[in-house]
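Much of the work behind modern protein science is quiet bookkeeping, done one molecule at a time. The protein below has been through that process, and both of its lines are reproduced in full.
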Amino acid sequence: MDWLPLACSTAVLILLTFLPLSASEDRLVPGQPLSFGTTIVSDGGAFALGFFNPSNTTTPSRLYLAIWYNGIPEITTVWVANRETPATNNASSAPILSLTNTSNLVISDSSGGKRILWTTNVASELSSSPSTAVLLNTGNLVIRSSNGTMLWQSFDHHTDTLLPGMNLRMKYSPRAGGRLVSWKGPGDPTPGRFSYGIDAKTLLQVYLWDGLRPVARIGPWTGYVVKSERRYQLANASADIIIYMAVVDNDYEIYITYSLSDGAPRTRYVLTYSGEFQLQSWSSMSTAWTVLETWPSSDCARYGHCGPYGYCDETTTPAPTCRCLDGFDPASMEEWTSGRFSTGCRRKEALRGCGHGFLALTGMKSPDRFMLVGGNSSTMEECSAECGRNCSCVAYAYANLGNGRSRGDIARCLVWTGELVDTVKIGADPGTDTLYLRIAGLETTDGNWYQISPSMSMFSSDYS
C-alpha cells in the first residue's frame, strides 16, 4: 500500500498577455521589493515568482503572489501566498512584496498607508540581518540568514500542490506541512472544500476530505520505511517517468516524500478543486498536462464503500468487489446483490460476553474509527489482552513502528469497539496490518480468548 497515492492537477490557467516580465535575479533582498509586472526566476529557470491574476480578464483586479512553472505556455501555479487576502491593482493600490530587516516577506499595498496583506511571520528570535529570500530550482522559496541558516520555506506551507522534495509530515516534528487544500474554483485560489493530508487526531493515516467528510483514506501507518518506484510511459516521450516514493523516519520526524528520475518532465501531485488527487505530467508534444493517476480511482477506493463490517477485496480479478468479513452476512441481500453495499454486513451470531476468540485476517488495510491504547512500548501480548478483557472490543491490530531503530521500540496498538468501516483486503504488502477479529463460537473451555492462525481460512462469506 502506498502512502502517497495519486496526484496532481488544479491551477492550470491560460497564459494572459499581462503576465509579469521575467527578471534574471532569483532572489530578493531588503530595499529591493517585487512589484506587479516583474518576477524573479529560479537559478536554472524551472520556476518563477510574481503576482498573477487568475481571472481571464485583461484588467487584473484580484492579484495573488504565486510560484509557477516557468517557460511553458500555460501558467500553472504550485504555491499561492495570500490565498485569503488578494491584492488589488488600480490607481490607488498596487501590491508589492518586500523582504524586511526582520527577515520577513511581506505583501502590502499602498492603500491606507501600506496595508499588510500577508507575511511569513518569522519568529523574532530567528530573524537576523541581512537576510535573503531565494527561489530555488525545486520551486521552494526560502529565507536564509547571512550565515546560511534557513529561517522559513514555502515547502512547509502547502497550498494545493505537492512537488518533488516536499514533505507531508506525520509525527514528531513541530513544523507545519501536513495538508494540501484545494482551490475554491477554476479561477479562485481561495481555500476550497477539499483537503488531503495527515489525520490530526492520530497522526497515523492519510485522508482526502470534503469539508469534514472523508472521501478516501489510506490505512494506519504500520511502521514500514521503504522506497518504492512507479514507472509511467508517455506517448512520444524520450524516457519513462519513474517516481521514487518513500516514508522517511530520521528520529526527528516521519514524513512522506517523493522524487523523480533524471530527465523526467515536469510532474507533480495536486488536489483539484473538484476533489481529485491527481498525478500530472507536462507533455511538450501536446503542450498540455497529462493525468497519470487519480485518487480515488474507483468506487472501491471511496471511503466506506462496502459499509459496516464489509470489506473491499482488491485481490480479486478482474475487478475489486465487496465481501462480508468472516462471521458476517449482508445486512440486506437485496441491496447487496444489486451492487449497493452501504448497509454493509451483520453478525451471523451475536457476541455474548467476553469468551470469544479472534480470527487473524492478514493483508488488511485496517478499518477507521480505532482507538490508540497503551504506551509506545506496548507489546503484541499486551495489545491482545487489552482487547480481550474488554467485552466491547470487536477487533485489534498491532504494529511495531520502531523496527529496532535508535529511537527505540515504538509500537502502536489499535482497538475497535464500534462498527468496522472502510476495511480493505490488499494482500501481501508492507503497509498492511493483521486484523484480529472477534468471532462468536470460538470459545475455549476455560473462558479465555485465543487467536486462530493466519494460515487457516480467513473469510467464509463470499458475496459479490
